[in-house]
Write a structure and sequence with these properties.
It is found in: Cytoplasm. The protein has 989 residues and is of the alpha+beta class. Helices cover 39% and strands 18% of the residues. A 5-stranded mixed sheet has the order 13-12-11-10-27, with no helix packed on it. Strands 1-29-28-26 form a 4-stranded antiparallel sheet, with no helix packed on it.
Length: 989
Amino acid sequence: MSHEVFCLRELKQKLSCKIDSIATARNLFFLGTSDGKVMVYEVSLQNRDAQCVYIHNSKHKLPIRMIIPIVEKGILLVLAGDVIAVHQLNHITHAPLDSLPEDRLPEMNTVKGTKDIVTLHVKRQRGIFSMAVLQRKKITLYEYRDQLSEFVMVNDGFLLPDGAKTLLWVGKNIILGFRREYVIMNVLSGATDYLYPTGKSGIPLLLSLDPVPEVLVGDENKGMRALHDGSLVPGRSGMSWSSIPTNATYIHPFLLTVHENNCMEVRLPFFTAHAEASDLSPWQTLSLKGADRISQRPFADFDASLPKEATPSDALRKDISILLSSNNTVYLLELLPVREQVLALASLNCVEAGLILCQLCANEVDQATVDSLKTQFALWSFHAKKDFKTAMLRFRDANVDPRLVIDLFPGFLTKRARETWHPPKEYTRSLDTTDLAMDMRSAITAFLDYALPLRREYATEEKTVLAEAIDTAIMKAYVVMGQEQQLLSFLAEENFCSLAESEVFLVDSEQWVALITLWYFYKQNHKSLALLYTLGTTRERVLLESLLTTSFSRGNLPFDTEFLHILHLLLANSLGKSSSNSVLSDRRDRRANFIPQSVMMRILDEIAVNADPSHQLGLLRRCVSVVTTITYISLLSWDEQEERALVEQYSRWILANVSPRWSVKMFPVTEIQPKHYTTVLRLLSSDMSDMGDTQPHERRAEWLSLVFDNACNVKIDASIHDAYFQSLVHLLLSTFSQEGDGDNNEEKKERSRISELHQRLENFLRLSEHIDISNARNLLEQPNLRSRMYAERAIIYRRLELHEEAICMFLYEAKELQAAQEYAKHVGHDGQDAFQVLLRLLLHPSDGCTSPRLDDVIEMLNTCEGVNLLTALPMLPDDTPILPIAGFIKRSIRDASARSRSAAMNASILEARIRQAELKIALERSRQVVMDLGTCCAVCEKKLRPDVVFARFPNGVVVHQACMEDEHICPITYKDFRLGIEPFARGAL
């Protein structure tokens, strides 16, 4: 990549001295000569020329190897031979020289303890300037003291093997470059660790990249970025160069290297890990014959950080940079404005490089340019790299108009948003659906991650167009991704989707449940129910324009046996797992929990294996309509006249065709107030024979079973109890004709259903306190019912205490002596003696055609518990043998004796406890407290007066009543005097 970063301006040609070192400070540059001179030049940035303002002759008369200006402290470090001299750095200009002292760089002092110096490096960290001096076999550390205006030695004990050629501060540690390796030294302990080899060239290169907390390490044919702990930066952090650099410097954010082939290369070292820089070529190559060295930064500044937008633009540009050629010609290195570079990179479609440059120099590029570049980078990532996640992150960072992002997906942007938006021409690019076909899922996933958090920022009345565009795009994205559950949750909550466009899109996608969810939130109840009715009765696709004109016609698609079988299996798998009395939503915020269409499709694939594939879509539409209608109607309020009318209008086709077990779920009893029960019963009792085959009494019985739900004594009108009773009776009566004795599955299911109905009727008769028992008795004693309702009639007789009629029913109608005995036993639990009636009817039958059943009586006496000996013996005939009933007599006498003995024992125990209580009362009453006039409260230590209520605990502690927190716990010892588990629990805690 070829890109102009720096330009060279010639300042001085072929200076007539041998220059050993160069340095810069603000607009001055310093030249150190081999004969011990320091030459100071001032550069005029306007005229692009340099003027010598002072020449200092060092008294040490040694070559000037290094010059390090520290403007912040007003000093200049000069390394002359092995002497480090500290000079005062004055403000030197080409102004009249009379106002300046004769020695403009006076030497203040020299650094002590230096010998055989190889090199040195200075850093600033936490405001303190530190200097590390590499000598031939050791490292010495110094710190600058403001009070003394000199560098003071802080450590002189780091011994090294011979051969170290360079060193560099890296935070609190130091990296050393030897001929064959790099090592890192801990300045606290002096310990060194091996890092990596130097390379075959044996020329180490170390360069600090601050304010970026990294360091450049030179290898044989490349430079590597490393962290301050010595570890290499992960990824592709290396930079290859054509030849080993003879000199290098870092001018944020660029790396400049001088090579022997008369050129200087410029690179952005932080761009190496990106695909766009795969060739790793320099950004700029400046050809200059005899290029020798570039001025270095004076010290590593670890207090500096990457510039931010509010950072002054010249924060890192205060010092000029110069380049010296081998013929002693001095050039000024001028950095082109970063903003111009960014725009140039953008014009070359190198947006990734430009964006990195913006991040590194945020204070030198205006926000509009940064946002524009981020947008271009995001578009490039989206179109070229297919890196959709990065693209969305950049769109978010640039705060672009959401319509630009939405428009990347064909058909996602709403019509109103497109009409009110004029996209920038440079960002406009038409896309076909085929452009994203291969990557649609990953693109939409990234878009959802972008749009979902963004929608909250635009959910205001002032931004309705954008909010509508975002929410509609999210809805379409969920549909394309096939994420129906997330789609339903999104549509069930507050959203700004364009209703018209969403309707069309969902219908085209056949997302019927999603469309119903959207309409329910916007209270489009009539349209929703009309759509469901049309889908369920026609099985065809629906035109939205014809929904409200659909009429209930008798020519609709019938509910045949095959479809009903599949439908009932689907309902059992979908609605069967929910509570029968639960509403599937929260009506207050209109959040519906409809069963997803994909779930129903999966269930249908499992149960409708033999269905015609050509009818599969139509079958799904019908099943969706039935299941969703049941849920939808259950959400409507019976307190609203309009919604109640819709229930009565659109529930009939479900009630008429679907099994009452499922259809009555449209009327959740937990949400319908008792005042509406009559209306519901009237609807359930309606004649719907022209629409379906279900019977009114089936619907009433099923719904009323939900109303009572084993809790019959709720405050419901007695007429509701009677209606439930009659519905159950009629339902049983209708099933009697279908009952068979076969063993096939259908007949077994029917017998099981009849048994369940009997059990339900028995429980109701047993528990209901509002039913008219007399009317129930008359109904069950009708000829067509009495022979099939023995258990129900027995419950009624028991409640009416007509025990003789109940026993006669079991003996003479049912011919079930065992049932009669069970009845007498249960009545005995109520404290009544029905065995007397049973014995009398067995010994003296009342039907006039049955002989006395003495054998049955004797067997009953010997086997049944609860027969009273005193009432049974007088009823037996005089000629009854004693031996057959001897066991009964013995058992009865033994039981009576045991009961008598138990009663006597209980009476004795009771008498003993009474006596114990009397003694305890007497003991408590005999307790007394002896006090004198000096007795004080154990808590407040105030004297107890006769007119004040006080308390004494069993351990003798006396306190005021007001000072006592708990009458059971002593306030001094905290002992609990109660008996039982509580004191032990207190102790355990």
